[in-house]
Amino acid sequence: MNFKDNKAIYLQIADRIGDQILAGHLTPDGKVPSVRELAAEIEVNANTVARTYDHLQQNGVIYTKRGLGYFVSPDAQDKIVAARRDQLIKGEMDYFLGQLKAVGITPAELQQIYSDFLGK
Length: 120
Fold this sequence. Notes:
CATH architecture of the domain at 9-76: Orthogonal Bundle
CATH class of the domain at 9-76: Mainly Alpha
Helix content: 55-70%
Radius of gyration: 18 Å
């Protein structure tokens, strides 16, 4: 896995797991790879994966069954979508909208661009 410098590695791993859940590769109540399995697969320290799983568990995306491992929460997709939507609106949207204003893109133009994008 290639990591970026602008975000903590454990959060990038959490995003990847979130992507897998949203894509249906990890299903509700389905088993998540063990800490050691995932660490070996993506070539990171097991402590980093453990931190990722702790983060996901605190956010209700995964849960643990004692002695059996980690599993995807039944409402994981809803939690991921809500968190990403919130992050987009609160974090990235201000910059994006500022750039639209700076280059003079009108709301009507943006609506057309977005409609065209959805029609692809």
